[in-house]
């Protein structure tokens, strides 16, 4: 066990746990941030996507030991009070079915749009390809990312 | 068209009312059944009792309406569409309605209705009746206040009006209405007067979903809760011989290592055990080793540190063996006849041409995004179970029996479910959680990893179909379908689906091979593969009959119109209308150069669906660009939700037909996670363009019917593009590149 200091959703936190504990379980079990989901544990499905210094990463596969001083944003910290334009687009297009993967999808989309504010369809498909949706709400995710880009421009 | 929706009801028993202590009216009701004579709703909404009712409507003094329902949500949108139906008949603006999940910790929270493609179909009458009865009570209360006859009053958008033009809001009369008799006869609205049904309503949980609120089973947590990870044998047919937990126990986060299984075995061996529910206690012949720890990561690590020895208890099976056995069944004569018309043998003997094909599909895991998990707390007073399961009543019964408890002591609370697809009909993970909690006597959450979930789970059974058809004078005269499946066969009226009734000489037979691999329902059971087999077979038949494949279906369906066979439940007329709509919207056979089309149509879950797949070839391989879908599901309650279901079902169907592969070697699954198991991803998805056939008939299922035609339409499009005839799923294993010598 060791202690680690990091910033999560703008707040400084110190956690004491095994060095190999993946960020996902730090968030869920230690910090009660349940929005980040567990899907595969091997960075293949994207359900656990969070931002590390603004970039989308798979929290299931990043051990806490590598995150000393890191700045993490989860779905809970994406936006205060109001909705992020990506979330607005998700709502407008009624994207989710079961909803389980959607936080991960949104985190991938927000990071992608911050790097590529004017994507074409191919860019969107490439960027979102790492996030599985078993309900296959893919058409709406694709449209929502495009709509969010429009909202943000 | 006959309007079947304007009905008058005179059942009194289906709802009860009470005045709320805080003001307002509370109506308790059941979606599907009458409630008990003695049942009374509480006067305080914090004490909602879901034992006697499975839903409540609260109408507050400000006229706002809250619908409380523990109805589970798997992703089909029933939590939105069911309240819409109530709101329509109650006649309040949708904006004045809020939908609340019943309090999870309420005592006696049971008797919930599980979702599925049938929820709306079964709930349709009861929900409308409830809304209409509540509205009539409010009208009656206003009439008494005004001292006029209730029949001279009307209500709309939450406002009651009398003949003198006076008005009262619903909220103004709720306290009076609460003391009135429940009216016996209410008239339901005419479909043309609908204001909410048929308009888009966004998923009522949208804000919670997109902001990451804890809604799912995996998110449920109580103080002092421990975690449990279960080590099961690596292969079907194996049982635990011995294990060594020394290293696991040495880990600081591991609290204990226990075994479970004894109770499940006892349950299996009892005389009253129902073998048809054999799937319900997974691997009950073995002990399972359970790591108990402080966090999820502790138990994942703890399980990895376990050393276990397994021994073979029964056969450990291979996919090759299954293939052989299923083909043997198709070749043999020991099949059960499921439907037989005319004389297929004679038709085949007298045919100008005979076409025979064998279609093959593998096992498939469900792969819900939320892995199986469940919370359990077993105390002397009660057994409390919380999590994502579609069959809470069955789960409660099995747990009561396993733990030798009274059924009244067992409470199952449902959370939102991260997908179902059939998997959460089976409560094996609930029983395991209960057994674990019974040993450790502490609240505990059973967690499955993806590997746990994909191995030793419940699967869609591997199935093979052989179809033979006779053609005489360019007409299909005979049709003989044989099914060979693992463990069980097509159920209910499936043998009477199209083309039953359309071909004079018709026969469906089935046989099965009993395996120790657990199998079960998987989105659109049986038809998810049967539709592919039949619909691609029809494409070839059309070629042999020298007719357009759509015209072949239309000609056959023409023969079923006005048929009198009660077993045939599909409507030829509705199917024809759906097919014509799909043909029109897809520009059938009239698309731009380089686009190849394939067609399929299928009736399942009471819904008629026709699909046209457009593909293009890229580097010689098919890229699915678009799927045009026409659906007749009766009245479309919530178009945005309905389209979402169809889009998902079609892409799911294409994904699994194209990529879904799952095999066993020595009883062990060969894929256990998404690094090798290929689920469809965004780059591989077509755009789904959905149209609904206009209808004023009762609504039918939507969660499943979009899926079955997709694989067939895709195979037919590939055939149109390259000439390759696909008979085996997943297609990706047998696709031949177009530029390797196949026709254009």
Any overview of this molecule?
The complex is a heterodimer of chains A (153) and B (744). Chain A has helices at residues 23-30, 85-92, 102-115, 121-128, 138-152; strands spanning 2-8, 11-17, 49-52, 55-58, 71-73. Chain A is of the alpha+beta class. Chain A has a five-stranded mixed sheet with strand order 2-1-5-3-4, with helices on both faces. Chain B has a seven-stranded mixed sheet, sandwiched between helices. Chain B has a five-stranded mixed sheet with strand order 2-3-4-5-6. A five-stranded mixed sheet of chain B has the order 16-26-25-24-17. Mean pLDDT of chain B is 91; it is low at 1-10, 105-116 and 740-744. With 744 residues, chain B is α+β, with helices and mostly antiparallel strands. In chain B, strand 19 and strand 20 (383-387) form a beta hairpin. The two termini of chain B are 45 Å apart. Chain B folds into three domains: 8-205, Aldehyde Oxidoreductase, domain 4, CATH 3.30.365.10; 219-314 and 372-447, 2-Layer Sandwich (Aldehyde Oxidoreductase, domain 4), CATH 3.30.365; 322-362 and 459-740, 2-Layer Sandwich (Aldehyde Oxidoreductase, domain 4).
Our measurement of the CA-to-CA distance between the termini of chain B, rounded to an integer number of angstroms, reads 45 Å
* Number of contiguous helices of chain A: 5
Radius of gyration of chain B: 28 Å
The coarse overall form of chain A would be: globular
Q: What overall form of chain B do the CA principal axes indicate?
A: globular
**Beta-strand percentage of chain A?**
15-25%
Largest sheet of chain A: 5 strands, mixed
Secondary-structure element series of chain A? EEHEEEHHHH
How is the largest sheet of chain A built, in terms of strand order? Answer: 2-1-5-3-4
Work out the helix count of chain B: 17
Oligomer designation: heterodimer
Largest sheet: number of strands, sense, barrel closure of chain B: 7 strands, mixed
Percent helix of chain A: 25-40%
């Amino acid at each position: 066990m060791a202690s680690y200091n990091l910033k999560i959703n703008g707040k400084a936190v110190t956690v004491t746990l095994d060095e190999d504990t993946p960020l996902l379980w730090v968030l869920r079990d230690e910090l009660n941030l349940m929005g980040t989901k567990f899907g595969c544990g091997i960075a293949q499905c994207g359900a656990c996507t969070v931002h590390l210094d603004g970039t989308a990463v798979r929290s299931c596969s990043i051990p806490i030991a590598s995150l000393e001083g890191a700045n993490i944003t989860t779905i809970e910290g994406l936006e205060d009070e109001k909705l992020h334009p990506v979330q607005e687009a998700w709502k407008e297009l009624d994207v989710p079915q079961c909803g389980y993967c959607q936080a991960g999808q949104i985190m991938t989309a927000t990071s992608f749009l911050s790097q590529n504010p004017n994507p074409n369809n191919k860019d969107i498909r490439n960027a979102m390809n790492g996030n599985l949706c078993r309900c296959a709400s893919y058409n709406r995710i694709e449209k929502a990312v495009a709509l969010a880009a429009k909202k943000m421009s | 068209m006959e309007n079947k929706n304007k009905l008058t009801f005179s059942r009194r028993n289906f709802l009860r009312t009470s005045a709320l202590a805080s003001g307002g009216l509370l109506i308790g009701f059941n979606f599907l059944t009458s409630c008990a004579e003695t049942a009374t709703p509480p006067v305080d909404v914090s004490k909602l009792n879901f034992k006697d009712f499975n839903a409540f409507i609260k109408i507050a003094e400000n006229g706002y309406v809250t619908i409380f329902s523990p109805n589970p949500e798997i992703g089909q949108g029933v939590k939105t569409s069911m309240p819409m139906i109530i709101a329509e008949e109650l006649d309040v603006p949708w904006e004045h309605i809020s939908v609340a999940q019943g309090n999870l910790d309420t005592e006696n929270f049971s008797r919930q209705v599980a979702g599925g493609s049938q929820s709306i179909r079964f709930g349709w009458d009861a929900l409308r009746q409830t809304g209409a009865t509540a509205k009539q009570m409010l009208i009656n209360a206003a009439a008494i206040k005004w001292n006029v006859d209730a029949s001279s009053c009307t209500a709309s958008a939450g406002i009651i009006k009398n003949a003198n033009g006076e008005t009262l809001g619903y909220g103004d009369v709720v306290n009076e209405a609460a003391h009135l008799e429940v009216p016996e006869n209410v008239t339901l609205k005419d479909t043309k007067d609908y204001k909410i049904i048929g308009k888009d309503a966004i998923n009522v949980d949208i804000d919670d979903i997109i902001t990451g609120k804890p809604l799912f089973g995996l998110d449920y947590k109580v103080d002092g809760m421990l975690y449990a990870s279960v080590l099961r044998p690596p292969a079907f047919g194996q049982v635990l011989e011995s294990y060594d937990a020394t290293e696991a126990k040495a880990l600081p986060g591991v609290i204990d290592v226990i075994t479970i299984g004894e109770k499940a075995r006892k349950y299996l061996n009892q005389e009253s055990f129902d073998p048809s529910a054999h799937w319900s206690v997974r691997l009950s012949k073995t002990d399972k080793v359970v790591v108990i720890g402080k966090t999820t990561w502790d138990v994942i690590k703890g399980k990895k540190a376990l050393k276990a020895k397994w021994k073979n208890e029964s056969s450990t099976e291979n996919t090759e063996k299954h293939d052989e056995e299923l083909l043997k069944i198709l070749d043999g004569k020991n099949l059960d006849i499921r439907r037989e018309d005319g004389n297929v043998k004679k038709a085949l003997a007298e045919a100008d041409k005979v076409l025979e094909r064998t279609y093959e599909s593998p096992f498939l895991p469900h792969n819900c995004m939320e892995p199986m998990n469940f919370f359990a707390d077993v105390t002397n007073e009660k057994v409390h179970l919380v999590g994502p399961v579609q069959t809470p009543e069955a789960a409660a019964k099995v747990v009561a029996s396993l733990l030798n408890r009274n059924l009244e002591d067992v409470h199952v609370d449902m959370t939102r479910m991260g997908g179902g697809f059939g998997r959460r009909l089976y409560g094996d993970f609930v029983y395991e959680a209960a057994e674990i909690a019974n040993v450790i006597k502490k609240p505990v959450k059973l967690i499955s990893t993806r590997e746990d979930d994909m191995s030793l789970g419940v699967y869609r059974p591997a199935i093979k179909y052989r179809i033979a058809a006779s053609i005489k004078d360019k007409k299909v005269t005979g049709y003989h379908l044989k099914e060979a499946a693992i463990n069980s066969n097509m159920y209910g009226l499936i043998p009477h689906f199209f083309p039953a009734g359309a071909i004079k000489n018709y026969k469906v037979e089935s046989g099965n091979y009993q395996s120790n691999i657990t199998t079960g329902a998987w989105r659109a059971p049986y038809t998810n593969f049967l539709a592919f087999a039949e619909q691609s077979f029809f494409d070839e038949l059309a070629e042999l009959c020298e007719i357009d494949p759509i015209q072949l279906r239309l000609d056959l369906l023409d023969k079923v119109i006005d048929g009198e066979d009660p077993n045939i439940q599909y409507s030829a007329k509705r199917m024809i209308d759906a097919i014509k709509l799909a043909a029109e919207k897809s520009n059938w056979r009239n698309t731009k150069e380089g686009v190849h089309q394939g067609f399929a149509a299928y009736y399942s879950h009471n819904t008629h669906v026709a699909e046209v797949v457009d593909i293009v070839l890229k580097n010689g391989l098919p890229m699915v660009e678009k799927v045009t879908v026409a659906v007749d599901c009766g009245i479309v309650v919530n178009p945005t939700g309905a389209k979402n279901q169809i889009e998902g079902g079609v892409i799911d169907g294409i994904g699994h037909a194209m990529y879904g592969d799952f095999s066993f070697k020595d009883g062990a699954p060969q894929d256990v996670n998404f690094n090798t198991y290929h689920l469809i991803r965004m780059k591989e998805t077509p755009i789904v363009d959905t149209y609904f056939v206009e209808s004023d008939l009762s609504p039918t299922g939507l969660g499943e019917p979009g899926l079955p035609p997709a694989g067939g339409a895709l195979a037919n499009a590939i055939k149109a593009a390259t000439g390759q005839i696909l008979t085996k799923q997943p297609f990706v294993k047998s696709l031949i590149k177009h530029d390797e010598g196949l026709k254009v």
